[in-house]
Amino acid sequence: MMETSEDTLDPSDWNAFRLQGHRMLDDMVDYLEHLRDQPVWQPMPENIRHSFQQPLDSGQSDLESAHAIFMKDILPYALGNVHPGFMGWVHGGGTPVGMLAEMLAAGLNANLGGRDQAPIEIERQVVQWTRKLFHFPETASGLFVTGTSMANLLGVLIARTALLGSGVRHKGITTNNQQLIAYTSTNAHISMAQAMDIAGFGSDALRRIPVDQQQQMDIAALELAIAEDRKAGMTPFFIAGTAGSVDVGAIDNLIAIAELCQRESIWFHVDGAYGALAMLSPDLAPRLQGIERADSIAFDFHKWGQVPYDAGFILVRDGELHQSAFASPAAYLKRESRGMAAGSPWPCDFGPDLSRGFRALKTWFTIKVYGAEKLGQVISNTCALAQYMKQRIEAEPLLEPLAPVALNIVCFRYRSADANRVNADLVAALQESGIAAPSTTIIDGQLAIRAAIVNHRTTASDIDALIDATLALGEIVAKNAQPQAGRGLQPRPTRFHDT
Ligand SMILES: *Cc1c(COP(=O)(O)O)cnc(C)c1O
């Protein structure tokens, strides 16, 4: 049992607590130092899964034994996105510095809804850096949120307020007799449709414009859709360009969208969930040209920025408008010019959350310690690795590329009969092998093995491991109706499995 003082949750023996804390820190440093010795992922045994379905226990247990359960039953069965072999979906790798910053933030237990405190100045510092990065004016506002799904929703709500005025917040959209329509490409992330749904417009009010050969939104088709909607009496109000599409990493023609939005007086939003931070890389930043003209940009520090989850962000050109979309007066949130209630506006005036964690600290530490230049190099490097992977695929007769490699995402497949089923099985077998972890997507009806290189730890040897394992397992899977996962391959040793 952890010895707590009689009346509080603090330890009675601070020295014992300190020693145990150091052990926990050491275990995590060991884990990060030796990631490569472990499988990327391994399926969780059923008995462990069941061990987390116990009834609520009213008694205490000691910190040491809870930590032992963490090491034995939780840590080995995490998804593995910290691992250099992880290439599924779009997941950030996190960093040791980010981990320590999270600990400091948790120790402070700061609530960043508002009030006069240094943690909010840190969030404002990150907002200021972000403005500069995207060439936004000093009057632009920014806010940490959970992720880009939330940031996209905020973008829609702010655009709604821009068009209808803040009266819409009281009367609701149903009293407005215009039908508001938004546009994005068929490549856009599903959170764009969810944003329209949650905002009350319905996902049918989001037009999905086809993409061209380069997987970019077809601007002529976009113009046509807007003209047709106007003719039908509807009100186009929002266009979301994508900077780094989740399927293939395509970047829409942001300059053309900016110009169209200006001409048509439509809100220009950019979903740059992972791609927007390519601004940190001098060789990639020119590809994002036009982003500096956006009305709002949604992106994540927790993907390419390597900040530990979660650290989503929205940047809004017109800070006053942003505030008018969310600020709400309440007696218990009264502002003062001195004392703790000073420092208005507060972060809670820019979004739906009142209680907010200190996401800014891990972001500030990451940028401060590693530097913007090094973070930009990491981003460039993941794109160089994607080009290397593309070359390896092109050199293998049994492999076939399925999409252009614009940034850091490579889509390909193993050539075989019944290719969709074989490649789905192959990806599951790769994941279960613990060697490499891509995910899947569908491109023009074809199931693709999709490798998104986001993690700063990934090197050319991890790309080789993925390609070699794909060839070895592909042969087995293509021959077998019901392949055994990982058969014929030596998985990475499971170093932390039994500790
Ligand atoms: C990941 C992603 C999202 C969703 O972001 P979350 O942080 O997971 O909410 C939205 N759009 C794109 C393009 C993405 O890659």
Architecture overview:
- The chain has two domains: 110-357, Type I PLP-dependent aspartate aminotransferase-like (Major domain) (Aspartate Aminotransferase, domain 2); 369-497, Aspartate Aminotransferase, domain 1.
- Helices cover 40% and strands 12% of the residues.
- The chain contains 15 helices and eleven strands.
- Strand 2, helix 8 and strand 3 (206-209) form a beta-alpha-beta unit.
- The protein is globular and about 60 Å long.
- The protein starts with 13 loop residues before the first helix and ends in a 20-residue tail after the last helix.
- The model is unreliable at 483-488 and 493-499 (pLDDT under 50).
- The site of pyridoxal-5'-phosphate has 15 residues, from helix 6.
- The site of pyridoxal-5'-phosphate (PLP) has 15 residues, from helix 6.
Order of helices and strands: HHHHHEHHEHEHEHEEEHHHEEHEEH
Oligomer: single chain
Count of the domains: 2
Assign the CATH architecture of the largest domain.
3-Layer(aba) Sandwich
Any idea what the shape is? globular
Task: Report the CATH superfamily of the largest domain.
Answer: Type I PLP-dependent aspartate aminotransferase-like (Major domain)
Rg computed from alpha carbons, rounded to a whole number of angstroms:
25 Å
Integer average pLDDT: 94
